[in-house]
Amino acid sequence: MVRKLAVAAMMLALPFAGQASAQEAPADDGSLTLEAIAAVVNDRPISFTDVRDRARMLLLSLGGQQPSPEQVQQITGQALEQLIDERLQLEKASEFELEISKEEIDGAVEGMAAQSGLTGADLKSQLLAAGIDPSSLEEQMRAELAWNRVMSGLYGSRIRISDNQVDDQIEQLRLAAKKTQYRISEIFLFAPDPETRTQAEEAARSIVEQLKAGADFRIAAQRLSSAPTAATGGDMGWVSASDLPPELVPAIESAAGPGLLEPITVDNGVYILYIQNKREPAEATTKVDLIRLITSDATDENLKAAMERITSCDDVQTVANTTQGLRAQPLEDINIEELGPEGKSLVESAEIGKPTDIFAVSGGLGTMYVCRREEGAEALPSREDLKNSLKGRELNMISERELRNLRRDATIIYR
């Protein structure tokens, strides 16, 4: 989702009492105190307490070191923009009387915690120990689930990916395979003007510190990035220099090797990039269609008996279905390199339509029938995978546009 960084970090130093931007809030003893307001979204306030809790939660959720007060302050602008987005998303969901159940929210919290090797209860305990109300996390999950459901309901069934679009994507991949490519993950902090870019640069430095301290890049991208790739943990896939914004190319091409780059400021924000790998122009490979035939029996008698009944790949599934202890597993359009040295050797030695030598598998024995072998094939994803990827990308773009429209039409007052 697109977020705009606000000038909020410096406001944390202001005293709460006596400010014009204050609201009454219940104190622990039930009396009313004044709490400073960071922003008002369509007449609904967001307090500085909300912002500080979200900033600390964002940094804690990355799995790095305990954030310092300076790091928390650096990321408050991003935290405020997230809270604004969530208010707008929940308002939109309310138009459809959409309700997200507690069970769904708990499941989302569990999923988020699992990314750091924790349970949902562990994560909530960590937040409480850091003085953060877990309801902040639950509200974030509620907004995320509601927004995804609204967007899928409104536009998911309308998106049609044509064969021509898939053909164009395949051609682009073929051209890219002839160039040096980089596997890159990104975090993008949207900041369209000089003032908010300063805020974004501070937030980027704080995020990089957390990443260097062991935070998970995928989680950071999911929680903080404004780019569409946030949904995939920031993964841009394999890209060539021509696929990237020109401002990023020098830093990527001059990198000594895989690793995290320092933040890169561009006209509309700040990038944090992680280079996972680099490959030179791809060489042709061998693609195969296989059917694995596996028996749980430790001896080879049943497997050999079944193989004697099989005359072609068309027979494998039928024989497996009618023989106790046997199962067949189709493997289509496999790059032979993915089979490992031993598997590759077995497949290369077998004739088309015939089985490989018998080999050991976990808990039994197996063979592979080679149903197709294509020498010099291009290492491209399947058409179905490309179609799903294009549909997901288009839905993300629509979601970004809808959120920008909500922001444009909303009344947002920064204090």
UniProtKB/TrEMBL annotation:
InterPro entries xref list: OMP_Chaperone_SurA, PPIase_dom_sf, PPIase_PpiC, SurA_N, Trigger_fact/SurA_dom_sf
One Pfam family in the UniProt entry: SurA_N
Keywords, comma-separated and alphabetical: Chaperone, Isomerase, Periplasm, Rotamase, Signal
Key word Chaperone present: yes
Gene Ontology MF terms in the entry: peptidyl-prolyl cis-trans isomerase activity
SUPFAM superfamilies, sorted: FKBP-like, Triger factor/SurA peptide-binding domain-like
Annotated signal peptide: 1-22
All copies of domain PpiC, residue ranges: 179-277
The UniProt record lists the keyword Signal: yes
This protein's name: Parvulin-like PPIase
Lineage per the UniProt record: Bacteria, Pseudomonadati, Pseudomonadota, Alphaproteobacteria, Hyphomonadales
